[in-house]
Design a protein that fits this description.
Layout: H1 11-14, E1 23-29, E2 32-37, E3 43-47, E4 50-54, E5 59-60, E6 70-78, E7 82-96, H2 120-123, E8 128-129, E9 134-136, E10 140-142, E11 145-152, E12 155-158, E13 163-179, H3 195-201, E14 218-223, H4 231-242, E15 246-251, H5 252-255, H6 259-272, E16 279-283, E17 295-297, E18 300-302, E19 319-323, H7 328-343, E20 354-359, H8 367-381, E21 386-391, H9 396-406, E22 410-414, E23 435-438, H10 451-457, E24 469-473, H11 480-496, H12 502-516, H13 524-530, E25 532-535, E26 551-553, E27 557-559, E28 564-570, E29 581-586, E30 589-594, E31 600-604, E32 611-618, E33 625-632, E34 639-641, E35 647-649, E36 665-674, E37 680-689, E38 694-697, E39 700-706, E40 711-720, E41 732-737, E42 742-747, E43 756-763, E44 775-783, E45 789-796, E46 803-807, E47 813-815, E48 820-830, E49 838-847, E50 853-862, E51 879-882, E52 907-908, E53 936-947, E54 950-958, E55 962-965, E56 987-992, E57 995-996, E58 1002-1007, E59 1011-1021, E60 1030-1038, H14 1040-1043, E61 1054-1060, E62 1081-1085, E63 1092-1097, E64 1112-1117, H15 1137-1148, H16 1155-1161, ...
Parallel strand pairs: 14-15, 14-16, 16-19, 20-21, 20-22, 22-23, 23-24, 27-33
Antiparallel strand pairs: 1-2, 2-13, 3-4, 5-6, 6-11, 7-13, 8-12, 9-11, 10-11, 12-13, 17-18, 24-25, 26-28, 28-31, 29-30, 29-32, 32-33, 34-36, 35-36, 36-40, 37-39, 37-41, 38-40, 41-42, 43-44, 44-48, 45-47, 45-49, 46-48, 49-50, 51-64, 52-58, 53-54, 54-55, 55-56, 56-62, 57-59, 58-59, 59-60, 60-61, ...
Helix pairs in contact: 4-7, 8-11, 11-12, 15-17
Length: about 1200
């Protein structure tokens, strides 16, 4: 049984700072991680004669009557069984005198007045608080990995002296200190489906190196009543197994029929199963013949508690959903729609590009429309181009009926309780059943038949209608702001994060809620993580585009006794498909493998059964494909290799251990079997290898006959070079032919030899490499092979322009098998102009006395990101420089260009924004109902501007401090994290907040051939509209021709300048209609919302991001500030034959070009590197 007491931490502290940017990973060396902490700005307010320090999105110390001080937290990833020592060093601090810190009063209790709490013993004594500044939690579980929570209070207060010490920078050392007993049963392998969660939550998350290291995907269906024996449930299980899933089908008789017994059953499953389920589907309603009970949270029905199987947090261990059925016909109908949807055998292609979206602002405000526009935006960017929208146009019920009758892939609704009188009963979708999201009050309950249940129960087997699955929200007490972010987060998961299962989509929506409101204000995260429920199969694979099709290249028949087979998978264009799951189904057993980059997979199995087998190929966005294979007696001649009787004899020229070693000569005996019904005559046999270190003596032989069901042995002598390593394949293939047929028979043969692996590095005197500073570094190497390495010489490669090798240690050493060694005192020096926090790849080569040699790369961190360094790069290559980065050539200078008045030449956009997405004040319960589009305007650019690799000729400008590329009109006034759910994509957020144009606020433009300036002038924040706190800032888009140089990726550059900066939106979550806070957002994201940089969100900045203020500036670019030459792909400041060789290697696939090399090598600007670029480059070189 899983230890349920391992994680006793209050919920508030746990979620306080999972997404905090105060902590940054400084360096990773062997067994040693260094974090840096720099606190963000805090609010200081006077309260009851004291000074109170508040951070709205952070926790605090919780000792009643003691000083209330902010607490900052972050997760770090732990290795199972390893103990850690965590310590800290204060790098810098300052002291505030004459301050009386407010004592913590505990959590308020509604209707209960408490006396003022003050610990006299402390406040009258000359002692410091807190005594302990840094705490580390016990190991905590996120499904299959261990993490620990660091909590830091970077303050020290003395009441008698009334002095407060504030730590401005703290360095935290996390060092492996030994082994520890593990009392928790973690799954033996990690879940690939949960990896997007880990990447979002854990600062130092490290993915596994290969697909095979993750667990096979597994699903569990918990069946209410006798539903497990229903023929459609059996058909669903069979379909999932064809897709390659491990499927567990259990009855409520096994799990028990109470919420506690079912949850306990799932917790035991997580502990005990080798491959525990990643997805759990409940089959049954909460009453009737197929009853499975639901939990209740704050008056709302929920299934999410079934997914919280470890720890007191909002992070699921499984994705959950319910196939809500009350009758046998419901089971047939819903599962039939699921199978029809996923098989996609009869639907037309147009269906996969069509969606319907309804935003009814009546009572719920214009943000319902903004939410739908975000979803439409992300779908369009992914290739869906038929968006059917009804944004406040009325006649909703008949309009929705028409869309369903036309056929749509997705239907989404945001509005008020009652769903604008939209009824699922009038829809007639046929086989075109969409995925439905209707996130508003009372659409996802289990009592009676809720709207979402009605959607999936519509129709019958012969006349399908309604939806394939639907998400609704329980209770009549939901709120627009929280419904919005969950809804948008669902589609961020589907499209931006590749979380294509219905259950994973909803889980990501709840994660987006947690990221936006991490302190769980007034239990908002608790409630809105609980109340949204999925009706339908959580394992449903959601389509995102027109399906692709596989071709499976596999033998039509196999003889009995063969237990392996190579399969090749290609798409409709004949291109290999990587990471497709290939499954063999034979005699009730299932065996799966994943294709490699060549689209090939080798299936192996243990059964010797005969009969018909099935081979399937499956991957998201592809239709499942299957072929039958007959296993048994094969007509004619069928030659195969008996791999289990293959023999190695190295007694004459080797060491006689029957193992293949480097520099050895051995004889390999290969038993050939004729499984066919006819005798085989005149067989020509050849042994070949593509491994250049393998030599075959007399590689051809001839056999006159192998009778049917008989075998003959052939033997070959193989000579090996010295340069082979442990586990390396000899790539031996036996080719057998008889004039009519031929057989290529792979021979699994692997080397027992040395294998040198780089394990880590340590700096001799310094904590981290610094730009321009010479350092001594020790390198740790490990021999993971089974043979000793004698006379090893390691030499660093000095071809990297970013690091100088001062002294190479090339002394000869030896490493025994399984041993390790430290090579001491290599002297290296990173170049002085390198960006702090960068990672460089330092190459090394090695050669041993035996001739074993090779090369590899060492990733090294250089410098520590801190204020004064640029932010980035993101995955595309964008950096953000600020005006404080004075050590870098691209640091922008604040140089205001006034365009709003005084002859600046700017033109008013005449936008109107009264706040809350309204063009005028007033409106319904949650805001206005007038959506005139007066808060955005589309501007044509006088030049083409490339952003994240895509050319644009227009931008959308919003009053709310952002621009988007393309026509992205939406009233996105609530700011969110970037990249992420919410707002338009692609976007650049200068100061994304709910800004208003009243009292003289306005947006201006200046359009020239060289640049375009957008200026937000005297803009007040809606929350503080009655004050004189105004923001004035501008964004400048530069014509690349005007800049006079090319960036490494060809993308355009943007400058943002702040004349007046007031970042003060804290929100108010106490009122029935919560007021969104989260301060403002500054950053950028690509068109899929999957890549970007976040300079600021919710008053948090990364360490390197200077807090913005009046008269500051940012510069967005993919450049490092150095000149680039077209054709100079190796960046040696010259165009020569070395660049030709590099481009040829790109074309041949030997090397993979970086974003810069792709741009610099594309000589003819046709978006590809090919032979034409080689011709042009050669001509340039010949013509000097």
């Amino acid at each position: 049984m899983r230890n349920q007491t391992k994680n006793i931490i209050t919920m508030t502290i746990l979620v306080t700072s999972m997404f905090a940017t105060e902590f940054q990973l400084k360096s990773v060396q062997r067994g040693h991680k260094i974090l840096t902490f720099t606190p963000q700005e805090i609010n200081i307010e006077s309260k009851d004669g004291f000074t109170r320090l508040t951070t709205p999105e952070k926790g605090s110390t919780v000792d009643e009557g003691m000083p209330e001080l902010p607490v900052f937290t972050s997760f770090f990833q732990m290795d199972a069984g390893i103990s850690y020592s965590v310590s800290y060093t204060v790098v810098s601090s300052h002291v505030i005198e004459d301050v009386a810190i407010y004592p913590y009063q505990g959590n308020p209790v509604i209707g209960v007045e408490r006396p003022f709490l003050k610990n006299i013993n402390f406040y009258d004594t000359n002692t410091n608080y807190p005594e302990t500044k840094l705490t580390v939690s016990e190991p905590m579980i996120m499904r299959d990995i261990e993490v620990s929570l660091i909590s830091l209070t970077p303050y020290e207060y003395n009441s008698v002296t009334q002095s407060l010490t504030i730590y401005d920078e703290v360095e935290i050392n996390i060092i492996e200190s030994g082994v520890r007993e593990v009392n928790i049963d973690l799954p033996s392998r990690r879940s690939k489906l949960f990896e997007p969660f880990y990447q979002d939550l854990i600062m130092d998350y490290e993915p596994l190196s290969s697909r095979e290291e993750y667990q096979p995907s597994a699903i569990m269906y918990i069946c209410g009543g006798a539903s497990s024996s229903h023929p459609y449930v059996q058909e669903l299980v069979e379909w999932r197994e064809k897709q390659g899933y491990i499927v567990y089908l259990v009855s409520s008789n096994e799990t028990g029929t109470t919420t506690s017994s079912i949850k306990s059953f799932l917790q035991n499953v997580m502990d005990e199963y080798e491959n525990p389920p990643e997805i759990v589907g409940l089959i049954g309603d909460t009453g009737g013949s197929y009853s499975i009970p639901n939990f209740t949270y704050s008056g709302g029905a929920t299934d999410v508690e079934y997914s919280y199987l470890s720890g007191g947090d909002f992070l699921p261990e499984v994705f959950i959903g319910r196939i809500s059925v009350s009758s046998s016909s419901d089971i047939s109908n819903i599962i039939n729609k699921t199978l029809t949807y996923e098989k996609a055998e009869n639907q037309e292609d147009w269906w996969y590009e069509r969606a319907a979206l309804v935003g009814d602002p009546t009572s719920s405000g214009v943000s319902t429309i903004t939410t739908m526009k975000y979803i439409a935006n992300i779908m369009e960017n992914f290739g869906m181009d038929d968006m059917r929208t009804n944004y406040g146009n009325g006649n909703y019920n008949s309009w929705v009926d028409n869309q369903f009758n036309d056929g749509i892939l997705y239907y989404n609704y945001r509005g008020y309780i009652g769903s604008s009188s939209i009824s699922p009963s009038g829809t007639n979708s046929g086989i075109y059943t969409p995925f439905v999201g209707s996130l508003t009050c009372s659409t996802g309950n289990f009592s009676g038949t809720s709207e979402s249940e009605t959607w999936i129960r519509q129709g019958s087997i012969s006349d399908p209608k309604g939806a394939v699955a639907a998400v609704g929200v329980a209770t009549s007490s939901t709120h627009t702001a929280y419904n919005n972010i969950v809804h948008m987060g669902m589609y961020e998961g589907i499209f931006s994060k590749n979380m294509y299962h219905a259950g994973a989509s909803l889980a990501n929506g709840k994660l987006a809620l947690l990221k936006t409101y991490p302190t769980n204000p007034y239990q908002a995260v608790s409630k809105f993580s609980s109340w949204p429920n999925l009706m339908g199969d959580p394992a449903l694979h959601l389509w995102r585009s027109q399906p692709h099709d596989f071709t499976i290249d596999a033998p039509a028949s196999l003889p009995s006794g063969v237990q392996n087979m190579e399969v090749a998978i290609t798409d409709e264009n004949g291109d290999p498909v990587e990471d497709a799951r290939v499954t063999l189904i034979l005699a009730g057993q299932h065996f799966s493998a994943y294709t490699d980059q060549s689209g090939e997979a080798i299936l192996t199995w243990t059964s010797a059964s005969s009969g018909d087998a099935l081979v399937t190929a499956f991957k998201n966005d592809f239709r499942l494909s299957e072929v039958s294979i007959a296993i048994g007696q094969v007509a004619g001649v069928a030659i195969y290799l008996d791999q289990y009787r293959t023999a190695i004899d190295d007694s004459m020229y080797g060491d006689g251990n029957q193992q293949i070693n480097p520099s050895e000569q051995f004889e390999i005996t290969l038993p050939l079997l004729n499984f066919g019904s006819e005798d085989a005559y005149s067989l020509n046999i050849e042994l070949v290898s593509e491994n250049m270190n393998v030599n075959i003596e007399n590689p051809t032989q001839f056999i006159d006959m192998i009778s049917s069901n008989e075998n003959r042995d052939v033997a070959f002598t193989v000579l090996l070079d010295e340069n082979l390593y442990e586990g390396e394949s000899l790539d031996l293939v036996l080719i057998v032919s008889n004039g009519n047929d031929s057989w290529n028979l792979p021979i699994p043969t692997y080397v027992y030899g040395p294998k040198l692996e780089f394990s880590g590095y340590e700096l001799v005197e310094d904590l981290i490499l610094e730009p321009g500073v010479e350092s001594a570094v020790d390198l740790l190497f490990h021999n993971s092979g089974s043979r000793d390495i004698e006379g090893l010489i390691v030499e660093l490669d000095d071809s990297n322009d970013f690091i100088q090798i001062i002294e190479n240690n090339i002394s000869s050493i030896s490493i025994p098998a399984g041993g390790q060694v430290i090579l001491n005192s290599f002297q290296i020096k990173p170049v002085s102009h390198m960006i702090n926090g960068s990672t460089i790849s330092l190459g090394f080569s090695f050669i041993a006395e035996s001739g074993y040699e090779g090369s590899d790369l060492i990733a090294m961190n250089v410098g520590t990101r801190e204020e004064g360094d640029p932010m980035g790069p993101d995955e595309h290559g964008y950096y953000i420089y600020d005006s404080g980065d004075v050590s870098y050539p691209l640091a922008p200078e604040y140089d205001w260009i006034e365009i709003a008045s005084g002859g600046g030449g700017g033109q008013s956009l005449n936008l109107t924004d009264a706040g809350d997405g309204c063009s005028s004040s007033g409106g319904g319960w949650y805001g206005c109902t007038d959506m005139q589009g007066q808060d955005t305007q589309v501007l044509q650019l006088p030049f083409s501007f490339q952003f994240y690799g895509i050319q644009y000729d227009e931008i959308t400008v919003s009053t709310n401090g952002w621009i988007a590329f393309g026509d992205r009109e939406m009233s996105a006034f609530r700011n969110y994290s970037v990249p992420g759910a919410g707002g338009p994509s692609p976007m650049v957020a200068a100061f994304w907040d709910d800004l208003i144009t009243s009292n003289g606020g306005q947006v201006y433009k200046l359009v020239t051939d060289d640049y375009v300036i957008i200026q937000w002038n005297n803009m007040r924040i809606y929350e503080h509209g009655g004050t004189n706190d105004v923001n004035t800032f501008q964004m400048i888009l530069y014509n690349p021709d005007y800049m006079g140089y090319i960036t490494p990726t060809g993308d355009g550059e943007i400058k943002i300048q702040y004349k007046k900066y007031r970042n003060i939106s804290v929100g108010d979550y106490s009122q029935y209609t919560p007021l969104h806070g989260c301060y403002s957002t500054t950053g950028l994201e690509n068109h899929l919302g999957s890549i970007g940089l976040e300079y600021a969100f919710d008053n948090q900045n990364p360490t390197e991001a200077m807090p913005l203020d009046d008269e500051t500036a940012l510069f967005i670019t993919t450049s490092l500030g150095y000149t680039y030459i077209l054709g100079d792909v190796n960046q040696d400041d010259a165009v020569n034959v070395l660049d030709v060789v590099t481009i040829v290697n790109f074309i041949l696939g030997v090397l993979e070009p970086t974003a810069y090399q792709q741009y610099a090598g594309d000589m003819n600007d046709d978006d590809s590197i090919n032979i034409l670029d080689v011709v042009l480059l050669v001509n340039i070189i010949l013509n000097n």
